[in-house]
Amino acid sequence: MSIHIPQPKSAFDKELMAGALLDALKKLDPRSLWRNPVMFAVEIASCITLVTFILSLTGANREPVWFTGTVSVWLWLTVLFSTFAEALAEGRGKARAASLRKSRTDVTAKLLKTPDFASSQTSVGADQLRKGDYILVEANDLIAGDGDVVAGAALVNEAAVTGESAPVVRESGGDRSAVTGGTTVIANSIIVKITANPGETFIDRMISLIEGAKRRKTPNEVALEVLLIALTVVFLLVCANISPLSIYSVAAAGQGSPVSLTILVALFVCLAPTTIAALLPAIGIAGMDRLFQKNVIALSGRAIEAAGDVNVLLLDKTGTITLGNREAVAFVPVGGHSELELAKAALTASLSDETPEGRSVVALAKQKHNLLPEALPVSATAISFSADTRLSGVDIDGVMYRKGAADSIITFIGKQGGIVPKDLEERVNAIAHAGATPLVVCRGAEVLGVINLKDIVKSGLQERFQQLRSMGIKTVMITGDNPLTAAAIAAEAQVDDFLAQAKPEDKLRMIKDYQEAGFMVAMTGDGTNDAPALAQADVAVAMNTGTQPAREAANIIDLDSNPTKLLDIVEIGKQILMTRGNLTTFSISNDIAKYFAIIPAALLSIYPQLGALNVMHLASPYSAILSAVIFNAIIIPMLVPLALKGTKFRPMPAEKLLIYNLLVYGVGGIILPFIGIKAIDLGIGLFI
Amino acid sequence: MMNTYDWQQTLFFFAVLLLLVKPVGTFMAKVYQGERTFLSPFLGPCENLLYRICGVNKDEEMGWQRYAGSMLLFNLMGFAALFAILLLQHLLPLNPQGLQAFSWQLALNTAISFITNTNWQAYSGETAASYFTQMAGITVHNFVSAATGMAIVIALIRGFTRRKTSLIGNFWVDMSRGTLYILLPLALVAALVLVSQGVIQNFSPYRTVPLVQATSYDKAQLDVTGKPRLDVTGKPLTDKIIVNEVSVPMGPVASQEAIKELGTNGGGFFNANSAHPYENPTPLSHLLEILLILLIPAGLTYTFGIMVGNTRQGWTLLAVMLLLFVVSFVVLQWAETSGTPQLTQLGIMGGNMEGKEVRFGLAGTSLFEVATTGTSCGAVAAMHDSLTPIGGLVPLSLILLGEIVFGGVGSGLYTMLAFAIIAVFVSGLMIGRTPEYLGKKIEVREMWVSIITILSAGIVVLILSGIAMITPSAVSSMANPGAHGLSEALYAFASMANNNGSAFAGLNANVNFYNILGSLAMLIGRYVPAVAILAMAGSLAGKKYVPPSLGTLPTDKAPFALWLTLVILIVGALTFFPALALGPIVEHLTMLGGN
To answer: Counting C-beta atoms within 10 Å of the first and last residue's C-beta, which end of chain B has fewer, N or C?
Structure first.
């Protein structure tokens, strides 16, 4: 089952923007804003300027009315931009949840007393079903809730949740017994035992995750907030300190006037790390959202951040590193037989072999020697693989074509008095040492040669592992193969390490060993026997096709059940942290220019000499202060796209990455506001 | 800017300092890790005897709360003893001048000043403190307050190196070892060298000696009520007093002088501190004193490197300190040799020599003042009040940065480590990892501690300097009005809150306002970070170790060193730019304007 999270339009869709604006206004409520202490402080600051503005209307304030008013407006806009950024990030989640909700329709269920088709039934609403209830679902009925099929088998259309129109079989017993509420039975009847109370079903959980209703700040977010709050407090004190200092200076210099409340408040808002504080919630929400876009659900924000820290990835060989099945890649004749002879025999032996490997032999015969598979004669008898002989093949008119492992074939021809060609062992070993599987082909008592069955490493993986290595992430391949084969595949895929003949307890021990050595381990898993290892791993990605225990042990669920997703998750985890760090540096670097704009302007009346600090040559003190305030406000919406998309991820060693980001966000953060504030000042000059 | 002699002196000084870092650092690491050193045969028995007397089990380690509790208890007892000595000075021996007791406000300020390693002196040594006070009171605290700082940083380093434990060492053991093996031997040797240069060491009463050149002044006549008598025209009547002899203070100076520098204490025996010829007679004693100031703070970076198992980590921090030091030195030296336009107008060439000692020269003076304010020493060999505005900005900024340019013994390194944690946190995010330093994850608790450590002094300065500016008694204490007065008050609180202890002079600090609020500043500036750092030591020790990988930000290379320097400068600049603009910066601009 592959569930698809609905993907709404771009975040900057008009409808979403309008909704976000409304939410942004609601979020101005101090009772919700105090969760973001920095912006809460800015809101208080905005209130103060509103009061000074009203006072200036009555003439109780010596500053021009337009100045106080404009400052107040822009401070309010600063807060609004911040809540808008958060609302916008949430908007996409809400749209997703709404479209999922549509798939839940109120349905009536046929409640059974006992899990028996003959049992008496009563009609109840889906919302009255409880865990353990049995319901009968007949053709064209909607399944009323999540559950397990306990009797019967039916064709179910799961398009409502998966988006796939091809119906699937759901039957009692085995791995295909789970059904999801909201899907439709197309044919036959089943009895379903309800496994989730209303509001606790898979779709409900998905909706609540997507809406971010249970979103909690991650420890790293809290640590960053500590820094931001501390800076805010310091800047509050810096501004409070200016007041008495300027009062003293006025007395000492015998001119000018102490710095006014409006200017102090404006300075405070400009200095406080508003840029990062305004965008911080959006960054986290948008990170989750980017995961949804990849069809991945993180059960906690912490899991995504942990993914950014992962330094060991445990990857299952099959499906992740190699394509699911081995393929025949070469015919290696022995005992003087020709390759064509071998290919013909191999083709014949594989004609009735419907396994992917068998089909790959047929395909190779066609590709190499243009041999086309013909229909088997009526007299032919297909011999399918049995645990007893460990051979498969075909008998045609008494000639036995067989293929199988070397030792099985040797036993087989031995019984018929055949002789093992001298070069067989050498060929077989050569293939085995290269990490491939040798499959020996015989015709009667004659060994013709060996088919080279190879695990095909997915293309592009080497490059990706190389990137991971440069980021300091070690990849470990887990396989049930013998060490020889495992080593060869590991070498080809260029993983750093491998665990051969792995049993679930080996995985668990390996994770513990790595963790003991201080590594953060990520793994993917789907089977019940993976559950202990998943529970132990720092980042555990469960395939949605996986069993319930595996899903419960994991902290991330991949709805596509694609094991390489782990790499995307790691990238997104890193992106979230990087975006936070970069914007923090940017936000703080900005303060330098703001000081140079506001301090000379605020103190000019006391000490005209300080005009020398007005390096931007801003037109007037009022225009200088206003320019800084406006810059501080509009930088927030300008950075919203960056916060939502995340800073671009570049796999490179830590030190290089730091230098790069410091140049862009640190040095850039110092220079940009000088340009921006000057530009705004010039713009203001057009009006006054 | 510097002549050949200046260059030789400066380069010689840095060469000696850097050559000493490794041996001194290695020795200190051995001492604190309880390894045998060449001093063990003599001092080992003393150490053990001390433990037996005090009932200390040296193998018993402490959790951070107990460590911090012991540290606070020890300092509290030290405070009580010193406070009592100051109040009872007139009853105690070794007081040939018959000096009176301190007022309780001054005693409080002085006692707190010395237990916090600040050594702010609102009194003049030669006119207020008896030999007993100087030796049994002040000098003792010069040793133990330094050893306290070292013990705290050693506990923090243990926090980095240990895994999954709550124990960070034994305070009494760290305290004893630091004093016995490190401070006492070094101070002993240094004191002897200082005596060889002419620093005095005696218990004699002050000597009265004839002046080579007699001088005179006019003394106002007072009537019986103590009011000045006026003549018929209303002018005060004066008597001409001829002065032909002078009282020369004596005392056990050398023994206090050595530890004053070595423990970055800075409280002078005399009011003139290291500008006084009996404290600092020759250029050689001058260089030795600067070296003593920087020796332990610089050496501790290497101790840190050894203990965390990567000396490059220590060298990196030392490089940051050195960079800030050299830049400060260059700016100060440039400002002082450039002098002022006013001096140039008067035809005075050769820079601003006001308030400086000719025997040290400009470069020697600059080196001392950068060293004494970059560390939390606070001894002075020149009057900071007389520096040019930009010249004065340098010591003030060094103090406001939080005393990390080598810093106080122990406190400098732990404050620097707190800065490193902030730097690591932001840079860690920037490379997409939850941050880690020396293999330990930096989480909420470490952030709180680091921020408290680096900001508590700054916050105290902001609040108290603000209060001072609108308190009439505080304003009237300023000798100079205007922007310079603001610099004086700002400097006073910066110096006290950061436990430096030097004064900008020009400010009469022995008034209740400065005595009491200053005491508060010194206490907060010392103990809030100290306890926070110990809490962090405990939390770090409990964490597991994360081995470095390619994805880990290397904290022992140049890019991190530069980033750390930038973080330090940005935090300092953002916190104090407005105050500095109204003080030294406006003074400088005014000076250029020719006023």
So the answer is: C
